[in-house]
Amino acid sequence: MFRKNPPEGEMPGPEDFRFTDPEIPAVACCCPARPTVKVIMPPAAGRPHPVDLWLCGHHYRASLAALLAAGATVEDLTAPPARPQADQVAAPA
Ligand SMILES: [Zn+2]
Predict the structure, then answer these.
(1) pLDDT of residue 68
(2) Where are the domains positioned within the chain?
(3) What pLDDT does 13 receive?
(4) Which of 32, 36, 45, 72 has its CA 20 to 30 A from that of 62?
(5) Which element (helix H / strand E) includes 17?
């Protein structure tokens, strides 16, 4: 039942790359959940450089209006890595 190595034919299916990509933190910035999106906050008064925020789906949806107002860029971590989806949520300048 709890074997260290699964026998041939019992290998796990395709993994969610959020769990294997070393560049994605195991815990979101907002809560102990896995991050679903990477939000890049643009520079602003008192913040001279962009800041990355790793948010879970729940807190991303809860913060969406504020993120839109701040002109944040959102990268969906659930998208396949071969086709990264960087969506600019702010209106183009
Ligand atoms: Zn959260």
Answers:
(1) 94
(2) 24-79
(3) 45
(4) 45
(5) none
